[in-house]
Amino acid sequence: MTGDSRAVLRILRIALVLMVIVLVPMAATTATTTSIEFWHCEVEQDRQETIGALIRQFQKGHPGITVKLQAIEEDDMRTKLTTAQAARRLPNLVWLSSELILRLGNSNLLDQKAAGDAIASLGQSDFYSGPLAFMASPEGGYYAVPYAAWVQGIWYRKDWFESRGLAAPTTWESILKAARAFNAPQDRVYGIIIGTSKDTYAEQVFTQFALSNKAFLFSPDGKVTFNTPEMIEVLDYCKQLSAFTPPGPESWRDARDLYLNGTCAMMFYSTFTMDDIGVERTGFKGAIVRDLVKKTGFAPYVEHSAVSSFGAVTGFGIMSTGTPDQADACKKLITFLMTRDSYIKAMHMSPGGFNPVLKSVATYPAYLDEPVLRAWGETYHTIARGLDSIQTFAQRDGQIFPGYGNISAQLIIGEALYNLTEKDWTPQQTAEWAQKRMEQAIK
Prior knowledge:
Layout: H1 3-31, E1 34-40, H2 45-61, E2 65-71, H3 74-86, E3 93-97, H4 98-106, H5 112-122, H6 129-134, E4 145-157, H7 158-164, H8 172-182, H9 200-212, H10 229-242, H11 252-260, E5 266-270, H12 274-278, H13 292-295, E6 296-299, E7 302-303, E8 307-308, E9 310-318, H14 324-337, H15 340-347, E10 355-356, H16 359-362, H17 365-368, H18 371-376, H19 378-385, E11 395-396, E12 399-400, H20 404-409, H21 412-422, H22 427-441
Parallel strand pairs: 1-2, 1-3
Antiparallel strand pairs: 3-9, 4-5, 4-6, 4-9, 4-10, 7-8, 11-12
Helix pairs in contact: 5-14, 9-21, 10-22, 21-22
């Protein structure tokens, strides 16, 4: 080999070494640049701190992933998503209600395969069936991964019912009888709160009554059915009950405050009220009835021509607009957040309000060892078992109707109840008005 050849080889070796020196850090840098944006609605400061701590823990164990958190008021989330979609700047991961999940899924914005992969990796058999059904897609997959759920029912003054010899308020007849018996507006005591404002609370209460009468929002072929005889019967029943509610439209806040101060015999409310009543950890500023948890009963279902349990589910949706690396990062984050220790920390942000959808966590001693859950004892176990049977207008006999997300977003049912009770519309008039509005909403 000539001197010139050896010189060329030396130059080539030096160049190769320099390339390795330059490219290895570049590869390492590339591996650390998977960034995902995560939107959620938990705007309370203490919840943001808990979520932030969990994300920092995740990033420490996954140095190749960076998570940008954004907390958005629930009432503003729809607008934010619409604006982001128009600007093609959607987040990669969202933690949202099933209604918003359905709306996004119906617009082909969610990665069903990624959601299915995450559910499978967590163990699909460990999920309660109700929350899974809330996230199901018409194609047979899942729009999102269920994360937290709550159950709605009637919280009632058990001590008052026992003193009058009244049965628990689980049927249309027993609810109406009790509302009439306890209503004493001259003493500022009311029989029941059902929700008559233009809001989601009114819709949630109405849904439970409707499903207990087999009044479905959609026909099997997907047409709106709000003007059926069954639905009109429900509207008529709600109007009867409204005679035993306080004057003016009522919201969830009215229900909570009147029940806590002892001026309401029954209220429809989610399990978010367990800390209000159980440990008096509440936004209500007035005097609370002493030992109220011992004086309170919970009716988790309503029965008429059918038995209806109602609840709500939130879940993690992975947007289909991201890269494969971002989808993979989202799956890893979901798995981390639903691993037992992380999951318990998150669910304890609102005990009773946030109920785990994994059976193994819902029955785990460390999860149950919490002041609110201890205060309610067996009542909590009744709630957890109810997660398998919660229902929604978005489903019927295994069919999924994503158009419900549009109806719910426009608060049509809440406005219909307001018209029925506050404007004194007839049930028939209300049904026909809502029917037309809903048909327009799903076009």
